[in-house]
DNA sequence: CTCTTGCATA
């Protein structure tokens, strides 16, 4: 969860600028067409393989020993359980464990606990497995306290917890982000001697480090495994490879991948899916094609998830029609798209503002009998919000409740953002209260959204109140929040207060990022304090925070508006040297100066280069803003 | 009979 947050925050920061200064764009556009042609041909290729190993393994897996009726829902479980309680003699503990295990697999953890309690009433003994399932259920319900008291029960009953029990506990601590305690159990296992960690123990802990964003700790543990008796296997490698890919450290991931293969460990479709997703996110189409070819040459066949990644990637490149073609072909070739595939497609239409087509996909999902979940609703709601169709978005919120789906924090945050963006601050605040009344707690991002809305609409006192409320809860107030507040103060022309808050950041243990600097510089410029603005420009570079295209545009506009033309020209020179170009509004100012014969006309073409890329899809704009062109 | 790994949303 934390890692998700870190990742989302990074993404949000990097998507700060919406202009595109990159000249990579045209090349990307060209080769992603090639990529698309490849994906299309790819189907014909891998499906002409004589055997279908994916299907054959699946049928093997679907033939378990049938000594129990198959349980597909909780009611069935309760019925079977009741019948078992009436049998004389009572069935063995193992039979009861099987029921509990199946209910746990259905993720009905509180049902497991109540069944366990019934077992106690009926005086059915329990063993190590029963208690392990119980611990696992408490873990998944985020009730580690109860899990630990069950562990106490082991010792009271003279039972010895086994490696499953410890693995379950380690995982429990990890899902609650308590990495230190998880590692503590691991260390005790090593020191204790009775129950040594196995591959699952290592795999779980490695995943925990990865979730915390600590790839190096994960790799350290991998190295430790290499020295010990329990050698690393595919799962551990795949976990780290996936984590590296998610952090866009694809080169590191590929290195680990080849290292793994050198040790004779064969990758599977999961390993390839992670890598393909990683390279696709970076727009490295050639590499994606290479990996797709490589996996097929090893008789590893792409599955629905592989194609979901491809569909999602093609959609994020703005080529939804082409993605639709891929989905069509999947169906023809017998790979049934799942709700993730359709959801990616729907999001593709949403991000282009083609809401009626998005709605069509939604209806298609319904007609195919796919279970529509909160995720799907959030995607569609987001689409309507971005298209400023708030009535439709709100209708969907009510519709999901009617269908028994529980709107979550993301649902409400999306809607709050939508309301703010159309200036309906009252509605936004009402939703903010409603979510809390429904037990959905606002997170840092929800606060950021509402604070931003209030600040942009000059409701500074309400914003301050909200900020205090946020500090009161133990939410991690990050630089994004302060940046929003500083911007709010600037909008309200309280530059002095903005600067005070800005200067207090280091004492709060926070470092301003490019956006924070840009906002502060802009505020100072508007206040006519250009020399202070320039001091900040120098300061940010000294502190290792490189200015971007926005920084230069902001400060150049400041100097021009302040009639400091000479200084403006020096900065234009600097901007061009660094490979950034002027945006529309700066260009207009410069042209005005040009008309007054104050600018060397030779500079003009440089300033306007590659503005033709402004129509690229959002995803590419975001990415390009991370790597401004430096040719 | 019990534990771990891959895809999508603000």
Q: Strand share of the residues?
A: under 5%
* Count of DSSP strands: 0
Q: Which structural class best describes the helix and strand composition?
A: mainly alpha
Shape: globular
- Per DSSP, the total helix count is 35
Q: What is the CA-atom radius of gyration, in angstroms?
A: 28 Å
State the end-to-end distance.
39 Å
What is the residue-mean pLDDT, rounded to a whole number?
84
Helix content: over 70%
The residue ranges in which pLDDT falls below 50 over 5 or more consecutive positions are: 1-30, 48-66, 609-631
Largest sheet: none
Brief characterization of the structure:
By secondary structure, the chain is mainly α. The chain has helices spanning 2-14, 24-47, 53-61, 74-86, 93-105, 109-121, 128-140, 144-157, 163-175, 179-192, 199-211, 215-227, 234-246, 250-262, 269-281, 285-297, 304-316, 320-332, 339-351, 355-367, 374-386, 390-402, 409-421, 425-437, 444-456, 460-472, 479-491, 495-503, 514-526, 530-542, 549-561, 565-577, 584-595, 604-607, 618-626. The chain has a domain at 17-47 and 563-631.
